[in-house]
Q: What sequence folds into this?
């Protein structure tokens, strides 16, 4: 108990006494912000001070249980006054955030996070509108779509079985409903929308840079230099100790590079393992003795696969964090900022692969590396790979995205909010009496103050990575929203809704459920900007590939301009895509199945024996080699990809040039300031020469 | 005459008196450099000062012929002492340059140019070595090349005529020699070399950044700020006048963007016009009455085309300059630096297209958009487009590159050096007597001094763009060296040799033939770094496209892995490319020529009548539509391009990360400096609080 008390005293004492030291080194602008600056300095000193005898610092002492914890206190009146007013409350979901107040209370770093998040949410709205329009257009027009009509009418077109065991031949018309969903995505609008989103991502970044310049300029932090501040802190703390130097070694870089590569391989390997797990488990269930398992084999496999996937993501997130931290320490970063920067890039890369490798598999590999009927690619020579959804591979991607953007987001928001809440309530219920007792054992002169401390103590712990996690979450969301937007135009809308909630969740969490963070100064969002730019480029590649490879947009265009009725002279008034469904299906002779004797039921709905089945590919029906159409379409897909990438990147480049990073007004302001500073110096010189 | 004298006096007076003003505003480090700084300040004041009555500045007065010119003087002892010693002399071609001395004499900007050029030349040597090895490997192995052998032996394979008029059928074996040249370029080594060059370009940039950091840090200009200096100059000149503000308007940006687009279209249009000129002129010459013209039609067309091309480049260079200047002024840049930056980007873009559009045509379009025998694409329905060189389109590119890298470079160096030299000699011969007379008419007390002035006056004029032009020339060379290096591996070697000469040429020109430049401070090479980076990316795209589209590398691989004897079981010990030549040629039935009655001689060397001829394409011999092979190869080409681009860009990215921009030592140095500055401030504060 006395230890806890000592800790509080420490905190208080330091806050009161150090302010004089601060004032000289920091710029005069800092005066107004004194409370956050104070906390920062005290925290720095606490972290770095060493006890003379044992050379232990605070971190060691907390480890040794001498202190339990150290954290800055909330200020109730501030909390109540402006934050809750129109920020940390659910009903204010559409209000603008009081960035200035957040800054004075939580420091610049947190304020910038909220400013960024608010801005991102605003801009998401701009992207959500065309997304909705595209979806509505798809919905309206799908009745008139020639392809859906043909698919729905094709009840005599028998398709080849989708798996080895117990899968029947099936009429194409079964996929009628999903064909309409596909049409929702697979129209010309999608290409435009994808280009729009590529430009949107760039413009978003540029506008954010402007916004940031404005905000930071208001705070007079434009020329602020993180390195300088850290040096200043070190000097205040102890002017004698030399600050650590930059370190760099090519060997270390190489090792880190190789380890990062290995880690990425492991993550991708896990995704592959999951795919193989599903394939194998389906077969095992089908062949198992139990009737129950046999019936639900494929569903069971998918369900357990999904659960496993979720578990791997959770476990890998923890593993990634440790690996990234380990690699960071290996690089021996000089300062905390540098460490954070390295950590950010590494952890984001790992998390990106963890979250995306399965989506990438679904988008670009699922069903494309399966071989053909009669000669399927088999894992270990035995298990046939999964096929795409009967209605096309885009549907798989669509479903995957829909699940991620709705279920997973909701779930993770819920967990993120409820976990601290439950922990807080738990502490209140079970710990309070105990610690109350302890406190009551001592004489307590200033009761209200101590009560405050206890209230603070009972809140959830925060660490330096709390804000980092919020950012990481948003970046993963941003990646999903932009990279596969061509497959799921509603992604911006869902992200928008999620973010409206997210802002308030984070606000409430910070104000009511967590201890106050050590405020930190910042004049930009740091490495995250770099990551946003990288995602912007990946978005161009990703969307290009979805349109070129996953969707049927290109084959349709090729059909339209090479073999559709439109280009023949006599035909008029017929939809150009008439016959496309037939064109896109190859014929397989059932006799060529290796085990064609023990195939499932071989009657079609009309009762005729099935001699041929169809499958999605472009092969001839003799030796099943690829036809001219196959190569033609492949060439078209690749040309489209190249064209799309280069055009979209050019547009991005021009957009980035077109919108200046810093608004003119702010530039002029800085110019003016610089000029005045120089003028002052000139006058001082004149004075001194005159005297 | 009195005007001239006044001008000199002006110069002298200002140099002597202004030094006091300088000292205060500039950092104390500037003291040592006083002569260049002095000149700069005087020049600035001269440029900006206005005569009270008429509001005219120096520029107006020179226009009005009140002054003839204004320039700083050379210092003979400096010139003689260190520059000529081991820099501006031919025999010192391999010595390192005395960058420090250049800096103290010509200012930082010129010194950085020479530092960059020297560094570039060093690094070119690294690229030249594998280029030479590749060429030697090609030379050694071309006797064993299966394809050359087959082509040389194919004297019964009759090829279709290359033009409409008077072109005969020709046996494939005619191109035997060139087939060997092609082999020199078209081997697996080229792909590796292209990737190597992509990485080379990145590493070059990164190493230059390190080098620059070192150099600039030695000069103590690391934190120097151009904007601040300009403001300081303005303040020294007249502390009252407000400095101009930043301006920006989206409408202006849009107009500039559109105009730049138009200009690029015009430039590309000119290149097209030249192509059509050649096509049309060939036909006109062939059909002309004169025997002489008819015989040499194609040669004449190519020769006049080349001359025209050279003329357009010269004319367009001037036009581009004016357009770029005009567009720059339209954007209303605030300062000279900003103006230079805008101008650089625009002029480089224009010059790039002027120089490259014809090379791009040769590399990617020539011979690919010609249709097929019997159905050629014709300009205006009449004139058939040019065909590639009989031995393949890569040879055209190779020849073009060889001409540019040897002839054109030599020529432009020669012109660049001789023009000032002749002008100087001319002035000495014709002007000297006259101006000598004038001077003698006045009383001349300090004769040696005046003699100096006269010597300086007779040297060639320099303007602010002199250095700019040198940079521009080097950038165009760098573009040629990197972007099409896959077609001409000797480019780095030739550029290396050229640069060795170029350094000394520039040095001699500056020291002996031109007036001294107004020294300018700089701490990097400015926009050129950006352009170098852009060229680095273009190089990846360019080389990828040359290998994928221009060369026969991909078709050979496709042949090897799909239909060569190697993949058949029985064949062993046969070169995998056996039969490739036959595979790559399509068959055309001579009967299908529209005008097959009046075709040229239709006997092959054996005396048989030709019924079929061959042409380079993949079409079937019935309806001449593209075969599976065509689409297969096209798909392979495009996949290769995509793969190459992404892999090369990834490697570039990793290389850029791997090599830090600033060496560790320098980083630590700056850290130390910063720390000491802060420490000093802290002590000062302590002192003041104690007192």
A:
């Amino acid at each position: 108990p006395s230890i806890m008390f000592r800790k509080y005293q420490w905190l208080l004492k330091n806050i009161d006494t150090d302010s004089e030291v601060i004032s000289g080194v920091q710029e005069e602008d800092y005066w107004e912000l004194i409370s956050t600056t104070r906390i920062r300095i005290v925290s720095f000193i606490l972290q770095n001070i060493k006890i003379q005898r044992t050379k232990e610092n605070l971190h060691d002492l907390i480890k040794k249980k001498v202190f339990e914890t150290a954290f800055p206190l909330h200020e109730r009146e501030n909390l109540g006054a402006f934050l809750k007013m129109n920020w940390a409350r659910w009903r204010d979901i559409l209000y603008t955030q009081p960035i200035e107040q957040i800054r004075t209370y939580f420091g610049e770093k947190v304020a910038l996070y909220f400013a960024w998040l608010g801005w991102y949410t605003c801009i998401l709205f701009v992207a959500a509108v065309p997304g909705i329009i595209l979806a509505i257009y798809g919905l309206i027009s799908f009745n008139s779509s020639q392809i859906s009509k043909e698919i729905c009418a094709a009840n005599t077109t028998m398709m080849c079985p989708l798996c080895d065991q117990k899968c029947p031949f099936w009429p194409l018309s079964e996929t009628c409903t999903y064909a309409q969903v596909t049409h929702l995505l697979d129209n010309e609008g999608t290409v435009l929308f994808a280009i729009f989103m590529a430009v949107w991502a760039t413009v978003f970044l540029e506008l954010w840079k402007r916004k940031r310049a404005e905000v930071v300029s208001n705070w007079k932090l434009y020329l602020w230099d993180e390195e300088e501040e850290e040096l200043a802190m070190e000097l205040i703390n102890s002017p004698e100790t030399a600050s650590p130097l930059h370190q760099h070694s090519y060997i270390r870089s190489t090792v880190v590079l190789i380890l990062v590569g290995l880690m990425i391989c492991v993550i991708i390997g896990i995704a592959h393992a999951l795919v193989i797990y599903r394939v194998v488990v389906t077969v095992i269930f089908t062949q198992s003795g139990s009737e129950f398992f046999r019936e639900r084999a494929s569903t069971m496999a998918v369900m357990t696969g999904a659960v496993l996937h979720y578990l791997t993501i959770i476990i890998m997130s923890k593993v990634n964090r440790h690996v990234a931290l380990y690699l960071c320490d290996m690089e021996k970063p000089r300062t905390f900022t540098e460490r954070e920067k390295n950590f950010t890039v590494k952890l984001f890369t790992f998390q990106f692969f963890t979250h995306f490798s399965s989506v990438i598999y679904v988008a670009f590999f699922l069903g494309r590396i399966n071989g053909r009927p009669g000669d399927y690619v088999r894992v270990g020579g035995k298990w046939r790979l999964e096929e795409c959804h009967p209605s096309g591979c885009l549907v798989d991607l669509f479903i995957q995205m829909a699940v991620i953007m709705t279920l997973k987001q909701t779930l993770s928001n819920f967990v993120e909010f409820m976990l601290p809440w439950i922990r807080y309530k738990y502490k209140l219920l079970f710990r309070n009496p105990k610690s109350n007792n302890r406190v009551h054992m001592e004489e307590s002169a200033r009761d209200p103050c101590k009560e405050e401390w206890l209230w603070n103590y009972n809140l959830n712990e925060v660490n330096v990575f709390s804000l980092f996690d919020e950012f990481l979450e948003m970046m993963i969301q941003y990646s999903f929203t932009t990279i596969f937007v061509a497959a799921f135009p509603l992604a911006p809308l869902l992200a928008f809704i999620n973010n409206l909630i997210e802002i308030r969740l984070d606000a409430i969490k910070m104000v009511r459920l967590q201890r106050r963070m050590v405020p930190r100064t910042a004049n930009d969002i740091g490495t995250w900007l770099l990551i946003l730019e990288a995602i912007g480029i990946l978005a161009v590649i990703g969307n290009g590939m979805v349109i070129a490879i996953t969707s049927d947009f290109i084959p349709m265009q090729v059909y339209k301009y090479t073999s559709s009725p439109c280009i023949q002279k006599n035909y008029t008034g017929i939809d150009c895509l008439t016959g496309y469904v037939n064109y896109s299906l190859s014929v397989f002779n059932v006799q060529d199945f290796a085990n064609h004797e023990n195939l499932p039921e071989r009657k079609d709905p009309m009762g005729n024996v099935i001699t041929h089945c169809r499958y999605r590919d472009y092969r001839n029906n003799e030796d099943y080699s690829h036809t001219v159409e196959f190569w033609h379409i492949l060439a078209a897909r690749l040309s489209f990809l190249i064209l799309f990438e280069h055009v979209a990147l050019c547009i991005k480049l021009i957009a980035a040039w077109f919108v200046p990073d810093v608004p003119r007004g702010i530039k002029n302001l800085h110019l003016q300031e610089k000029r005045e500073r120089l003028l002052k110096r000139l006058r001082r010189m004149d004075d001194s020469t005159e005297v």
